[in-house]
Predict the structure.
Amino acid sequence: MVDKQLADKIPTFERGRGNGQADQGVSITNWSALMGRGGARQFGEILAIILVAVVMIGGAEGLLRGLNVPQYVMPPPSAIAVAFYTDFQFIWEHLLHTLVELSAGYVLGAVIGLILAAVITQFPFIEKIVAPYILMLITMPMLALVPLLILRFGFGYEPRIIAVALASGPMVMINSATGFRRVDLAKIALARSFGASTFQIFLKIRVPMALPMIVVGLMIGAIFGLLTAVGAEMVGGGFGLGNRLTTFSSMIQMPQFFAVILILSFLGILIYVIFFLIGKKWASWQA
Amino acid sequence: MALATTSPARVKMSVKSAIKIYDTKSGPLSALDNYSMDIGDGEFACVVGPSGCGKTTLLWSMAGLHSLSSGHITLDDQPVTGPHPQIGMVFQEANLLPWRNLARNIRLPFEIKREKPDQTWIDHLLERVGLTDFVGKFPRELSGGMQQRASIVRALSFKPSVLLMDEPFGALDAFTRDEMNMLLEEIWLETRKTIVFITHNIAEAVFLSDRVFVMTARPGRLAKVFDIPFPRPRSLDIMATREVFDLVNAIKAEIQHRPTMTTSNRTAGAREGSAHG
């Protein structure tokens, strides 16, 4: 019996050419249907993707209208689309606030996380000492600190930025540390044989070797940052997408509420796609 | 068969009473035990021995990547205390950086040394090994033989006078290995670098070297040195000759600590109906 997956595949050493799989960088799911090289080239595949989307959305629409589900329980997709169109002018400002908090907190957390990961992994002794605290930081729900931060910093950007940094930093750090901890003795010996200094080995060997894991850490950190930013906005303060969620739901404006949810989903997907592309460009050597 | 009585006219690299003991969790591990050898200028020397006998330890010490527990290593009568610009290394399985294409892999030594690469020389080397059209490719896109050719170009790119090669063709198939051996001999005849080549393939060692140094199982000691007298350039045809067969057998016997069996005494033994070793 010929293996179905192997049939008609050229056994090639050029990985990622023959089958369109191996040269994806960082990815959780197979995104080749949307953007991969070996992706949805066939008309049939594209048709199937569109068909499923239409059935899903149309089905929801039909079901909600058919069963007369009230809008305050669950608005139909068409109502959400209308709300998105008419109310976006009242939402976009809040989107900007969220983006400001997210990017400021994320850059802060990611930079500190990266530096800590790079430094700590060079000293196994220090790593052992700080490991439990890092684990604590990762498992601690940073949202729980937001009321405290608001007490100290007020209802502005600050508590949110700090919460985002505290949530994303440890995620970036732990993944990057995994990357930095990889040692390939032969590659280090190679660089040493050319007379490389410890710093040159770090720059030319360790960093590129850690890069795939760093990209994963940056992606997870960004997604955690987004969650924390929205959560912090729901806790307190009069602006931001999270604040819109609490406002719209308290006013039972469900189409608007779901329009915000839609924006948040888009943000999450955008983050994923950005890091997917970064991973593809910078870390695709690792099949 | 010729047992070595010759010592090189001008010594390029010398290992004197090298001892290397590693500290491991299960106690000290002796990798090299009083190992000495002199490598002549422009000589092609192979070190053979069973796996895990300390061959790589020896080579890494010669490259200045390791320090010895005791003993000396000299290059042109100067002690080797660290990585040396006159020493180029070729590693097992090519050891190219997977995130760099060939051109950038070959540029790595110059980036580290902060020197400008001699592009004419590199282009010549690339043409010599048939990789000119592949400089934009990544290692994963190349066959094992091509990867190893690229790593030879990388090692020769900065014009070292000594090439230390650590089982470079061990992972290649037999045909590619033959091809690489011939290419390496050609390059050696052209450049006359001093080469120390480590392998556990005895036939490969006989084909390539002027002298074969046989190392014992751990801890690595020098068991015997064999002169390989065949004229250069050699063709793969010599591998089928009785002289090579006997030499390979003698080296094998030396590694396995058993009496030498040559084609002549084997046939004699068969005639007399008596069994040998």
About this structure: Chain B has a mean pLDDT of 87.
